[in-house]
Amino acid sequence: MPGQEDFIEIPEAAPVSVALEPAQNAFHSLVLLAKAEDLSGLSDWVTRTADALTPRERKRHKLVFFGLYFAMLPEQSWPSFPAYVDHLATRNPNTLRDKLLAVYARHPPLPHDENQPWYDKVPPIDLEAILKDVDSYLDFLRERYDVTKLDAEVEAQAYSYIVDPPAMQDLIVSHLRKMWDEYLAPEWEQVEPMLQDAVKAFQQVDFSKMSKFEAARLIIGQELEEKKWDWVFERAERVVFVPSAHLGPYLGKLWAGGDTFWVLFGARLPEGVPFHAPDLSRAEIVVRLSALADNSRLRILKLISEQGELASQEIMTSLGFSQSATSRHLTQLSAAGYLSERRCNGAKCYQLNPERIESTLHAVSNFLLGK
């Protein structure tokens, strides 16, 4: 008899697809709560929920999603977020700890190019040396990450759980269940139909004749910097784009070194696809207009419109803004597509994207006037 493989053929997964991915979707929405203070333009749910957290909840959330992030990052698709949390509760706690440390070990030591990919394989890990004491653990992190982006207090607290894997697992599972039950579950019930519409609309697009980069550009609806995406497309066997109701104009990336890379984008309709979804159209317009509905950001756009390409320092000096405020405004305007960004003489320079402004006005006209 021929072998079973002669009769059964496993279909290959599409290299690029758009999917609902409930576990990744909910996980990333919770990630955004920890970043609400640093990003403007996120959804109302994110800002309202972040403000509603008690100081104790906020501190615990930061510990779980900054200090223990890679221990709980989903590595496959799940039918729901609660199903994924139930899975975490049944795993060997040491496996979660090892997963966290393996991702850190993959990260190339400093100094390295920001576009340098992570190691394909996990280098040998001296677990005893890394976890000898809290200082050894922090040194392990500082070898790989910019110290200005590390919160030593949070990482030191995370260490106390990493050396006690059962306690770490209990903390993760209890916190995720609490955040889901008290904050995210009602919101998910409201936004899920809209996200399903986005997936259905993109399923009408034939990606088979497109490169991964072309498909990504169509899905996101904006130009992408090839250098930042090449290493993703080269290493990931599958890239799954996930529409989000909470991300605003930004992109989110979830990857722990496996064969699938998840990219979250603001839920929208693909250009040229006949699909009636007023909620999606409205959501995209809100994201675009929120970037314009601020006096400081309008002043930045007007300044660049009148003077041409400017470096961030020039914008900050001309308008008298602080560095943090300038960075936050420029980040949102770039993410929304109103500004194009490039490196010039070691600094970030910005140009106006008039086509994006025209398309926004056109989208508003279409939505309100049907024109």
Short description:
The chain is of the alpha/beta class and 371 residues long.
- What does the main sheet amount to? 4 strands, mixed
List the helices and strands in order.
EHHHHHHHHHHHHEEEHHEHHEEH
Give unreliable regions as ranges: 1-12
Mean of residue pLDDT? 89
- Give the strand order, joined by hyphens, for the main sheet: 1-2-4-3
Termini distance?
65 Å
What's the β-strand tally? 7
Number of helices: 17
Helix content: 55-70%
Using the CA coordinates, give the radius of gyration: 22 Å
Which band does the percent of strand residues land in? 5-15%
Structural class: alpha/beta
The tally of domains stands at 3
Shape: globular
Notes on the structure:
The chain has 371 residues and is α/β, with parallel strands linked by helices. It has three domains: 30-187; 193-266, no CATH class; 294-369, Winged helix-like DNA-binding domain superfamily/Winged helix DNA-binding domain (Arc Repressor Mutant, subunit A, Orthogonal Bundle), CATH 1.10.10. The protein contains 17 helices and seven strands. It has helices spanning 22-33, 44-52, 55-67, 69-72, 81-90, 93-106, 127-130, 134-142, 152-162, 165-202, 212-220, 226-235, 278-292, 295-307, 312-319, 323-335, 354-369, and strands spanning 16-18, 238-244, 251-254, 260-266, 310-311, 339-344, 347-352. The strands form two sheets. It has a four-stranded mixed β-sheet. A hairpin with a 5-residue loop joins strand 3 and strand 4 (260-266). The longest helix has 38 residues, at 165-202. Residues 1-12 have low confidence and may be disordered.
